[in-house]
Every structure is written in structure tokens, then in C-alpha cells.
Amino acid sequence: MDFKKRALASLIAALPLMAQAQFSQNDVNSFAKETTLTFAVVDNFHNKDAGFLGKIILNNQSDVALAAGESDWQLYIHSVRKINTEHVAGLNIEHVNGDLHRIVPTKDFKGLPAGKSLEIEFDAQVWVVAYTDFMPRAFFVSGDHKPAIFANTDSEDMSQFVAPFERENQLRRYNEPKDRTVLITPEVRFERNQQTTTKVSQEDALKRIIPKPQKVEFNRGVAKLDNSWQIRFQGQLKNETMVFMQDLQNDYGLTLKAEPDHIKANKEKLISLKVNPQLANGKSESYTLEIDDDRIDIVGSDNAGVFYAMQSLLNLLPANSQGAIEVPQLELEDSPRYGWRGMHYDNGRNYHGKDAMFKLVEQMARYKMNKLHWHFSEDEGWRLEIPGLPELTDIGGYRCFDLEEKECLLTQLGTGPFKSGSGNGYLTRSEFVELLTFARDRHIQIIPEIEGPGHARASIKAMEARYHKLADEAQKVAKNNLINKKNTKKEAQQVDISAATQYLLSDPNDTSVYMTVQNYKDNSMNVCMDSTYAFLDKVTYELQQMYREAGVQLTNLHFGGDEVGAGSWVDSPICQAMFADPNNGVAGAGDLKPYFTQRVAKLLEKRGISPGAWEDGLMYDRTNPFKRDEFPNKTFTANVWDNIWEWGVADRAYRLANAGYQVILSHGTHLYFDHPYEAHPEERGYYWATRYTDTKKAFNYMPDDVYANADYTRTREPIENLEALVGRPLPQLEKPENILGMQGQVWSETIRTEDQVLAMIFPRILSVAERAWHKAPWEGEKVDTKTQEKDWAQFSAAVGLKELTKLVNAGVNVNLPVPGGIVNNGKLQVNTPFAYLQTEYSLDNGATWLAYTAPISVSKEQSIALRSSLNDKSKSRITYIN
């Protein structure tokens, strides 16, 4: 479809808006303000596991009636589940693109009088068991008036516009096959928390360093840190020392004087910081830490090792301590398990602000994590200013109600119709350079991801807007030349649009039809066009300049490669011309993904950059990776995520490693932190990989044996025989040196604010830090459950006693676990997965709250509310008994 036809299609789509308006702007505003729009799940069981019945309830409490018959009004909703129903109650339901759907009246519409309600029942794909599957900010438009958001949906409180889930066919995903999820209750939580039987003293919890050191021996006595201590540092450690001093002052009120070690220290108490490259046989990031009553010695194998020793020392300081602080005397030796200890952060879908990124980097460093995989480009947004391509952020950085996408991207994911809506925005170039410098000083490498060829709608639409702008300018120049120079008609036809097409990512005449997993029809970069690679090279060049300005090198760049819509490019004339050329090694659409990957890999190799991709972007089919020797890069990382065991591809980590790729374990069942903390409808997140992932589940992940993590199928059926489930032999790992490490992932479809994204990451990220740094003795094909339980008890006690408080003190919104509770013999008993985390109860429906310290007497009929509490502001979700 060429651009003129696309514009025409947009015009036709918008025709009802251009009809004579039946409503005034006041009518539109009043209707949306006074009418409630409520989403509801009717039945998840109506089509086995393939779909659900839902409904939209419009309760018109305004003075504005919707007349019977056709009209020019339209109602827009965000629905991540594509709605199959096309006609209901005299209304047409149309899928626009992605999650955006619109509802328009037909001649059969019976109207909606003031004071009346209308139910719109629909059939949609998949199933819904979490309130956050429904998106906020539905809106109403009429004619060419401004849209208005239904007031009750303009909220992050899902209860304002989602009806409660109470029945089995609302709380469970399906009944064929049987959904074996154990639905969470206070009693289930209590039972699970009771499985941790090891009691950990406060003293031992304070001593538990996260992540756990390789070897530590505690001695008698303590060192008393106060302002009388001095710091002496080796000259190369100036940056690390400055960060350390800042942390001591900001967090603990300690102001220590620091001098280079050529300046002799007096007899006062001393912290000594040195580098010894021979330490730990030269293994990078290693360190020793010795604490005596008047001396603290830190030696690292490199600067990073010294920095991590500092973090261990800080980790030993009690939360909320100020001025004069006791720290245990010890001798510690430590080295990391993996060189890649990462976190993937998607703010391409929803932007959460600059502060969220700085807080994430700061806390990753506190727990010795060293790789931030920044997913800054997606279908729904482009989040970094690129010099020379302002459209990427002017248009790609914002979503609003603009069907022609001249000013912004099509609204998605609950943003609503205005640029002021949630999820909009981007980092400026200077802000990113600042972030790079901040990360550099904390030994964190930021790996940017330019998504392609799929998941690229934001960049595609931005470059189409650039094309139209520059092509129009070229036409005007040609027209002026014709007038001023009296050129011939033939000369006037030769308009130079080379600048307009320089970075174009779509073939104007491509008529390919496809639908992605996220329900997009137009999000694949055209891999047959040279301008696609010019675009990627331009962005890469600008990224390199930013990194250089920050004093670091861009050594790794991720290009995505995943979830390309089947059918992309097959009807592109440019691609068909490529297929017709017998000399280029591209015979058909099946050759295009490897062709794209080869060109990108070579482009990056010329710039000294190692490429990375998601696993499915590196596979010919379900089991065969692209030939590794086709790529010139020494390192080519693969993020392996798809370990849904019954899907039969969960062995790709070993297949890719054996084929010569460098693998980063990123498995969905344990390491996807956009999934709920527990199986409850009020928990935020998607749940395609597993019904829930809590901090303990992530803690129990075993990266050295991928198959040992095969615990349950998606239906929560226990996996007894993995090979029988898959139905073929499972390859063994032949090249363990190609497993670089592991990382957590957070995707932001349902996450719209800083507080939301930080709560989804913290505290689960601490489990990733633990497993990536420390190999536990209980790990293996046959887990030593007794040792594992003891290890978890110590870890979780440290989290509850000090880490959660430290995080909140640093401005990080954390997820506090909902308590477990039972009434046994008339006594209320309460617990949480984190020892020392305070809980509260209410016996008057939340009017007053009391701290729970020991079992209390209650009556059988009494309604009991429970919550976890960290301080006056940080509370968990409330749960109820009776």
C-alpha cells in the first residue's frame, strides 16, 4: 500500500469524525464525565483455552442521550485481548491496531437514554484473570470535537473501572485443559510462608550480605564507624572513592576525609582502598574485605572489585543508622559467579521518567549487578533523542488520538487521547549522557536495544513522518524552481526526494498482510531496503558519540530480532525484486531474517560493537540456530527467554551456546518481572509464562542446569519427565563457557508509572543479583531442599530486616508481600515470606490498624484485614479473612 493509499485509508477510517457533529463539546465532555464505563469478565471457560467472554457496561448518568441509529460518535477502548466480536447491540466493534479498538453505532443501535445502562458483550482472544489486563483511559469523541476520557477510567485504581472477579470462571484461565493454579488466599499464603522453618536472629540477618559472598568469616567484636575514620585510596580509585563517600554521607550521615595513599595517614582509624591485579588469580571483579576495630582493608583485582567490596561494607550497615554505626569484624574473599549480571528494562512501551532509570542503576550497583539492557525502542514508543532524527522523539516519543499519526503515534496501552497521558516522553541526549556517566561510576554497562526488524512501529511511523515532511519540502523547492527559472514540465517532474527516503523503513508499495502477537499490522522494518540499514547505522553512530562523551565505549548493542509477524515483506515489490536476483543468496521470504541479521552484524562489526538478539531472532526454525560462522563478530549474545517446557523449545539455551553464541539466561518462568507476584486478580502483570513469580521462585532459579528448573507446565501440572513432555532427546551443554550469565526482565505493557515499575522489579531483582553472583551449594539436578530452605531463610530475613527499608529510603517503591493469616482455635496468626517485616491487622474494616506481634484472640464471625507495613507510607495490598 503506498503512502497516498495509506492516507486515504486513514481518512476513510476517520470519516465519522468529519460528519456533522450531533454533540457539542460540552455534550462530549459531560457524557464522558458522568457516564461510567466498566469492563467485566463474563466467562473464561466459554471457548476452552482460546478465548473469553467479556462485556463493557455503560451507565449513563449524564444529561446527554445517545440517539438511536447511526451517528458520528465513537467510543475508543484499549484492549490487549483482540476482540473478535464485530457486531453487537447495534454497534460495530473495530480493531484499529495494537490494543486500540473503537465502537461505533449502526442503524440498528437502539440508543442510550440519560439515566440508563447499556451492556456490550463481546468475545475476545485468550483469557483474563488480572484486572490489569484491562487498560485505563477509554474515551469518547464526536465530530471534530476534542475527545474526552471517561472519568472513572482515568485512574490507576483498577477497581474504578473493572468489575470484581469472584467466580471460578473469572478467577481461572480455562477449564479445558484444567487450570490447576492454586488460587491465593490468606490461608494459602500462611501455609507457604510456614514452609520456612529456620529461625534467623536479627544479628545473623544483619550480617547476611546480598549477594552472598564466596567466603566470609566473622570475628568477635565490631568496628565503630564514625567521622573520625579516614580513607586512603590508590590513585586510580578516585571515582569509586567519591561515590563511596557520597553514599556514606547521604545514607548514613558519615562525612569521612579521603586522600590518595601517597599522603601518609595519621594514627586515626583508616579505610584503605587498593588494587592488586593478581588477586584471585586475576579474576575480574574479585575482592577481599577485612574489618578490624580500627582498620578496614579493601583490595580488589580491579576497580570494579574495590567498588563491590564497598557495597558489601555498606550492605552490613543497619538500615536507618546514622552517625556512629557498628559493623561486624570479619575476613571476606569474594568473586562473581558470572560476568553478566543483568536487568532488562523496557520503557519503550511505557516511559516512566528519568528518575526511574537513575534509581534502577543506583540499586543495581548496590547489589553488584553490572549490565542494564535498555529496551528504549518499541512499537509503542522511542525513548531517546537522536540528533538529526527529531521525528523519533517528536512523534515516536508520544501517543495521542491522531489516526493519521502526523503529530504522535496511535494511542496504546491506556495512554488515552492526549500527549499528557501516561507512558509518554523520552530521555534527552544530555540526560542519557548523564545516565551513562552515572552508570560508569558504578561499574554498570548500559546495553541499548534498537528493536528490529519487528517491534519497530515507533521508528517506522517516525521515519514515514520524516519522509512526508521532506518530500513535501522537496516538492515546494521544485515548484519554486519552476516558477523562478521557467523550467520545462519534464524538468519539474524530477523532484529530488533522496533526503526523504534516506532513512525510510517501509516500502510504500508493500501490501503484505500480517498480525503480530501484540496485534499490530505494520510494525516490521523492511529488511530489503538499504535505507533500513542506513537508519540503524545512523542511530548506532549517534549512540557511539553519546557513549564517548560519557567516557565509555559502546561495545554491545542489541537489535531485538524477535516476534516478527509471519507474512512480513512477502508482498513488498522491493523484496520481490531481491528474490528475483539469483546472485544475492536471498531466494524467498524465509531467507530474509538471516539476511537482516548478517547485515546488522557486519554493520556493527565495522564499528567494533558486538551484536545481541532475542533467541527467536537467531533461529531458522524451532531447533536450528542461524549458522554462527555467517557472522564476523567474536561475541554475539543471545537472550534465551522461551522456556515454556511444553512448547518444545526450552532447550534453546544449550542449542545456541553449543552453536557458538554467547547466551544470557533470561527465562520467562523465573526471571520475567512483569509477571504477578502471586495468583490474585489484583496483582499487576501478564502471566503467559507462569501464573506468578515471587521473590522466592526467582531465588530458587538454577542457572547451571536449565532443565532442573522445569517445575510446572503453564496449567500448573507438575513436570515429572521433561524429555517425555518435549518428546525428543534434550541436548546437553557442550560449551559451558558460552553461558555468560543471567538477567531479570521487565516488560511494561501494564506498567505506566515509576512507582509501578520499581515495585515490579524490587525486591525480585535481589534474587537475580544473588543467583548471578553466588552459586549456592544446594543447586543441582537433585536439590538439597534442607540447605535451600536455610539459605532462603537467611536471605529473606535480611530482605525483611534491612534491604526493603534501605530501598525505600533511597526513594524506591518496593512491593511488600501480602501477609498470610489463619484463625486457629480462636487465635489469629499472621506471617510474611520476609522475617522481621512488620504486619498490621484491623478488626473494624480498616478504620484503625494495630501492629501484629503475637497471636491474638478473635471471634469466628469477625472480619479481619491484614497488611504488611514498612513505615507510615509503605504498605502492602490489604487481604481479608472472613
UniProtKB/TrEMBL annotation:
<keyword id="KW-0378">Hydrolase</keyword>
<dbReference type="Pfam" id="PF03173">
    <property type="entry name" value="CHB_HEX"/>
</dbReference>
<dbReference type="InterPro" id="IPR012291">
    <property type="entry name" value="CBM2_carb-bd_dom_sf"/>
</dbReference>
<dbReference type="InterPro" id="IPR004867">
    <property type="entry name" value="CHB_C_dom"/>
</dbReference>
<dbReference type="InterPro" id="IPR013783">
    <property type="entry name" value="Ig-like_fold"/>
</dbReference>
<dbReference type="InterPro" id="IPR029018">
    <property type="entry name" value="Hex-like_dom2"/>
</dbReference>
<protein>
    <recommendedName>
        <fullName>beta-N-acetylhexosaminidase</fullName>
        <ecNumber>3.2.1.52</ecNumber>
    </recommendedName>
</protein>
<dbReference type="InterPro" id="IPR015882">
    <property type="entry name" value="HEX_bac_N"/>
</dbReference>
<dbReference type="Pfam" id="PF03174">
    <property type="entry name" value="CHB_HEX_C"/>
</dbReference>
<comment type="similarity">
    <text>Belongs to the glycosyl hydrolase 20 family.</text>
</comment>
<dbReference type="InterPro" id="IPR015883">
    <property type="entry name" value="Glyco_hydro_20_cat"/>
</dbReference>
<dbReference type="InterPro" id="IPR017853">
    <property type="entry name" value="GH"/>
</dbReference>
<dbReference type="InterPro" id="IPR008965">
    <property type="entry name" value="CBM2/CBM3_carb-bd_dom_sf"/>
</dbReference>
<keyword id="KW-0732">Signal</keyword>
<dbReference type="InterPro" id="IPR004866">
    <property type="entry name" value="CHB/HEX_N_dom"/>
</dbReference>
<dbReference type="InterPro" id="IPR025705">
    <property type="entry name" value="Beta_hexosaminidase_sua/sub"/>
</dbReference>
<keyword id="KW-0326">Glycosidase</keyword>
<feature type="domain" description="Chitobiase/beta-hexosaminidases N-terminal">
    <location>
        <begin position="33"/>
        <end position="188"/>
    </location>
</feature>
<feature type="signal peptide">
    <location>
        <begin position="1"/>
        <end position="21"/>
    </location>
</feature>
<dbReference type="InterPro" id="IPR014756">
    <property type="entry name" value="Ig_E-set"/>
</dbReference>
<dbReference type="Pfam" id="PF02838">
    <property type="entry name" value="Glyco_hydro_20b"/>
</dbReference>
<dbReference type="Pfam" id="PF00728">
    <property type="entry name" value="Glyco_hydro_20"/>
</dbReference>
